[in-house]
Amino acid sequence: MTNAIEISDLHVTIAGSHVLQGISLIVPSGGVTAILGRNGVGKTTTLRAILGLVASSGQIKVLDHEVSSWPTHRIVQLGIGYVPEDRDVFSGLTVEQNLRLAESSATVQYDEVFSLFPELKKRGRQRAGTLSGGQQQMLSIARALLNSRPLLLVDEPSKGLAPKLVGEFAGVLERAAEHSTVLLVEQNLSVVRRLAQRIVVLDHGEVVHRGEARDLDDPTLVRQLLGVAGAA
Amino acid sequence: MNIFLVLTFSGVALGAIYFLAASGLSLIYGLMDVLNFAHGLFMTLGAYAGYEVATRLPSSLGAPTLIILAIIGATLGGGLAAGITELILIRPLYGKPISQILITIGLDLAVVGLLMGGFGSTALQIPVPLWLIEPTHIGGLYLPNANFLAIGGGAVVLAGLEWFLSRTRYGIIIRAGVENREMVRALGIDVGRAFTLVFVIGGAMAGLAGMLYSIVFSGDLVSPSQGDSLLIFAFIVVVIGGLGSIRGSAVAALVVGLLQEYTSFYIGGHSGWAQIGDLSTVLLLAVVLEIRPRGLFGRVA
Q1: Which of B19, B58, B79, B184 could disulfide-link to B204, CB 3.0 to 4.6 Å?
Q2: Residues forming a β-bridge with A61
Q3: Does B296 map to a domain?
Q4: Tell me: the pLDDT tens digits for A166-218?
C-alpha cells in the first residue's frame, strides 16, 4: 500500500451550496499530510466525505478500498481514528464510558493513552461535559488513539486552545505519526510546520496547491494561498 | 388519612404503568427521533399475547404459573412486534418524520382493525389467580394485590433499564446515540443495530405495560383499543418528563399517576365529575410546557 487515501473528482453539495467542486488529492502512507485553507473552503467537509458523513460523488479510496458508497461505520472499521473539529465527546457519559465506546478490538492501548494523558485516568468517572476544553480535546484524541489505527483524521486540534496545550497535542500527534498516517486539517501554521511533510491547500472547494511543507517558508506563497502573513 | 394512603398506593401503581408505557416511547424518540404512534398498538398486542398464553396453555399449570407466563408472553410479544415493525416499516423511513408518523398511525389502525376482526370488539377476560383480586391487609389498610404487581414491575424495569444504560456497552451506545448519532458512527459502531434493539426494548416494555394495565386497572380485560387510550398518557408523561430521559419519565409518571388518583377522588368524587383526573393531567402538561418546555429532565434542544 503506497497511498492511504486517494480521492478523485470529489463533489459535495450541502443545502444547495456546492462545497467541494471536484477535489483530487492523494495522501501517501506514513507521515503527516496537512490540509490548509481559509475558513469555509471545505477542509472539514473533505474529512467528513472521506468518512461517509456527508453525501458525495466521485471516487474515494481509503486503505486500498473503494469506499464511496459505504456506511460510515464500515469505513471507520478499516482502521481510522477520527478527531472531529468540535471534539464531539459525549457530554452525558463519563470519561471512562467515552473511551469504552471507542474500544474496537483486542488491541486497545489504555496504558499508552493514559501515559499520554494521565489527566484522563484521574478523571475517569467525571462526566465529559464537565471537562475543560483542553481536557475534552485530550479525550477526543485519546478516543482516536485507543486502538492501533493505520490512519488518523484530525480536524483542527489546536482550535481554541492555550499555546501550551497546542504544543502538547502537537507532540502527541508527532508520536502517533510514527506508526500511523495522519491527515491533519489545521489553521495554525506553526503546528503544520512542526508536524507535516506534505500540504494541500484548498480554496473555494478546489485544490489550489499541493506540495511540501517547506513551501510554507515562502511568505509570498503563504500570503497568496492563505491570505495571512507567512511568519505566523 | 387512610383514604389518602390508599389513593397514594394506587397512584404509584398507576404511575408505574405509565412509566412502563412511556419509557419505551421516550427511548425510541430520544435515540431515533421517531414519533412512534404504533406504541399503543405494541401495548395492545402485548396484552393479547398475554391473553393467548393464559387461555391456551393447560389450566393444570395452575393460575399463578399461567399469569407469570402470560406476563412474560406479553413482554416478548410486544418486543417481537416492535422489532419487526422497525426492520420492515421504520428502517426505510429514517429522517422522514412525516412518513414515520403516517405509517405508525396506519399500522395502528390496520392492526387494531385486524384484532377486532379476529377477537371481536368486546373485551376479553384474562384468567388471573385469586391472589391478584384480593387485597392485602397492612396496618388497617386494604391494599389491592394487583397494585403490588404494577409497582414491582415498574421498579424492576426502572432498575434494569438504569443498569443496562449505564453498565452495558449497548446501553452506552444508545445513550451516546441520543446525544450525537453521527459521532457514534464515526467510532465504527453500527447504530442501526442499536436502533433495532431500542425498538425491541421499547416494544417489550409496552407489551408489559399493556398486560399489567389490563390486570391492575382494567378488571383483567383486554380490548383492541386499550393501548391507544394508554398511549395518550404515555405521550403526556414523556413530554412532562423530557424526551429521551428515563428518569424524567419515571418522575413524571409518578406525578401524573398520583395527580389523577387524588383529583379523581377528592374533586371528582364529590362533584361526580369523573373526567377531572384526565383534565388535571392535561392542565399539568400545559403548565409544564409553559414554564419548562423541554420537560423536567429534558436536554436543551
Answers
A1: B79
A2: A6, A66
A3: no
A4: 999 999 999 999 999 999 999 999 999 999 999 999 999 999 999 999 988 88
